[in-house]
Fold:
Amino acid sequence: MDSRELGRRGERRAAWFYRLRGYSIVARNVRLRNGEIDLIVRRRRVLAFVEVKARQSLAAGEGYEAVDRVKQLRLVRLAGEYLAHRPHSGEIRYDVLSLYWTGIRFIITYYRDAFRPISDSHRPWKWTI
Structure:
């Protein structure tokens, strides 16, 4: 399976994973001016912006390891861009869903509330993981 197909299957499986847990899918592959948000889900008053990482091999590490501070900052900024046009008064959360394709099935590792941006006077964002 090529990487594009793996990504598509991974994102479909991620949506399925959230639906099974009572979330509604707000949007998939949201293209914004500065990038794309893989998945936006909602349950009650919680809106989660999800970064989906699918892998066929663990040679380069687990998918979640690719979500470094730069990618975290990008997701937070994209979420801000999205929310500027679609305000949300509830809780905002950032999740990472890492999927490993064994050749038969996906093994899913779920990082709920994977990181949080915290305002800091010295830097625009400080991260806790």
Q: What stands out?
A: The domain at 3-128 is CATH 3.40.1350.10 (Trna Endonuclease; Chain: A, domain 1). The first helix runs from residue 3 to 20. The first strand starts at residue 24 and ends at 32. Residues 50 and 95 are 5 Å apart (CA to CA).
